[in-house]
Structure formats: C-alpha cells, structure tokens
Request: fold
Amino acid sequence: MGCIGATHSTAQWVVAAVAGLALLGSGVGEAAAAGAAADAYTEQRAVEKAVARAPLLHAVAAKVRAAEGNVGSAGGLPPPMVRLTVSELSYSEHHQKQPTAWVMVEQPLPLGGQVEAPRAVARSQVALAQADAPTQAGEVAYAARLAFGAWRAAVQRRAVLRHHLADAEAIEAVLVRSLGGGRPVSSLRQAQAQADAEGLRVELVALEAGLPALQQQLAQWTGESVEDLGQPSLELPAAPTHTIDWDAHPALLKLASQQRALQARAKAESAAAGWTVTPGLGLMTMDEMPWGLMLSLALRPGDWPDRQRSAAKVAATHGEATALMPMRQDKMLRMRAALAQADGELKQLQVRRQSLVERVIPALRRAVQAALPGLASGAVTVADILEAEHRLLTYDLQQVDLEGAWLQARARRIRLETAEVDGMAVSAGAGGSAMGTSAADTGSQMSH
Reply:
C-alpha cells in the first residue's frame, strides 16, 4: 500500500489510527479466554454423556444378561421319565386273571461331559458378550470426541474471523477517513481493503450457517439439547500418556474369548458322542404276586451311528479356534504399529503448534508493534502493516487447524486403547483443518 501522506502531521495521524487497531490482539487468544470459563463444555463431558446414553451399549448389557440367564438352564441332567406298563389284559366268565403292570421311574445319566459341556459353552458366551462392552464404549467415545473437536474448531475459527474482520473494517475506515480528509490514498489499496473485509464477512456467514449442524451432531451423541451445550472449552486436553497393557486390551481379549468359546463348543460337540446310561426303579404287580420291586438299566450310544461326521465337525471347530492364535498375534503387531504412528503424529502436531504459538505469532506481533513508530518517519508504510495483518490471519487460522488436527489425532490415539480394528486410517495431513480447509488455504481472505 502506498503512503497515506508525506507530511509529518499526516504520518502522526496514520500512526495514531493504525495503533488503535485490534491488530496486536489475538483472535485465538480471545476465543481461548472466552472458552476458559468454568461452565464451558468440555470434551470429557461429551464423552461421558455419549457413553452413558449409547443405545448400543444398552443392547450389549442386555445381551450379557441374556447370556447369563442361559447358564443356569444349560447342561444339567435331563428330566426323569415315568413309565407305566400294563400287559396280559384278559377276561372270561370262568377265569379272571390279574393283569401284569409296573410303574418305573427312569433317570437318564449322560456320560462323557454331556452335562458340563453345555454349561461351559453358555459361560463362554457370557464372556464373549462382556468383551463387546469396552470396544463399543471406545467407539462411542471416539465418535463423541470427533464431534466435539469439529464443533470446537468451528467456534474457534469464528472467533478468529470476527477478530480479523474487526481489524479489516478498522483499516478500511482509516483509508476512508484519510481519503475524506484530502490525504492521498491509493484507490486500488482502498478497494483491496474493502475486498478483504467483504471476504471475511462472507466466510464468517458461511461458517455460522454450518455451526448449528455441528452442534446438532454433538447433541445427538450426548442426548442434550443444543442450548445445553453452551460454549466449548478451548483449553486443549492433555495428551494421552496411558501405557497400553496388550494382555488386557479389549480387542485382544475379545479374540481370546472367541477362541475359548470355540474350544468350549468343540468339547460340547465331542461330548455329544458320549453314551447315556438310564437306570430305572419301580414297582410291579402280576397274577399270584401282589407286588414286587423292579430294576432296569438302559444304554444309549449317543451319535455313534454318525461318528465320522461328528468327528469332522469337532475337528473343524478346533481348527477355527487354533486359527485365532496367529490372528491375535497379527492384530497385536498391527495395533502396536498404529500406536507408534499415532504417538508420532501427536508429537509432530504439538511441536508445530508450540512453535507457532510461542515463537512465530508473538515475534510477528512484536515486530509490528516495533514498526509502528516508523510510520512517522516514512520508514514503514501502511502496506507493511496490512501485510503483517494478513500474515497474522494466516497464522491464527493455522493454529486453529493444528489444534483441530491434534484433537483428531488424540482421539485416534485413545481409540487404540480399546479399538477392535487392526489399525487407524492415515490422516490427510498433520496440518489439516477440522473444518475441511487446509492450512495452505487459510490466508486467502486477505489480499496482498
């Protein structure tokens, strides 16, 4: 931008006007201050609400209760049987013969583990149903974290845009007042300032139009109304430092439960080939004998006629159980690799954000503040100040994008603590925006 004037009084007027801008403030800092209130909505609250109301977790709990109910009815002895037999029924006028009759109580006694094996299968189903709960809770928490992160990024971006829009409007007003006061101002520079402000207004309107959808998405997970959400906490949560115990990892425990369930089923299938002994005890009455005690013993050979098919079925089930062993080891290796990738991504994003927040942005603000007195001597032009404003907008939006990407990477890292998947999808980039705008595009609102 060209100089607004050449005289000393004109330079002093420009210094006073530009120094009054909000340029030295921080849109991200103002948003963080607003989001640091005690009643700000936190990510932890979103996760707790989402997990507490998740219908899928209630279904898992119902599945566990149903499996537990099946344990009591599984296995056990078959019910006893009462047998009544009457024979030699005859009648004549000259001879009456008492019929032969007996009542027997018989109790089948399955052998070869036929009683306990079904109970073991039922207990394995309980463990399998219980193994679903941590994995499903982790998936619900992951979705809630992503929804919160998207909402937080939108609110933070809105604060940045509002801050820099105020700066752009102030710069435009400076140029208008300068032109109205008869001071020489480049019409092209004034048009560019107006375009800067208008571009920020358009982006702000578009962002606010999409914000209710992000709030509604989070509210669907938490079960709260949009009004209950209030403002998101813009304080970044701590990085996950939990050391994963792979022996107790829910996804790997689920594989172990599946293996035990298959082994229990194989034992039950093998036990089905066992014999069943049925002892009986009863009373008998017949002609010339008022009553007598009767004993019986019956043997049933199980599925002996189809023994070959039964053995093949048992072998197939054992094969399925054995195949889960290398699958579990492979899953562990893949998840370890995904964990290393997630930790590396988190550290990379943290270093980039820290450099931007602690060094780059403060250094640029200090440089602008130090350069303002140079306007009076003509060593610094208003164009230099506008260029600095443009760079500050770019860096502020990059900070928003980096924090959004960091929250997403953190959610993926925490998800690995319960995830059933082998690995996590590779992110689009460490500096990608949570709102779908890359860091390279964030400076396009302010013209050079």
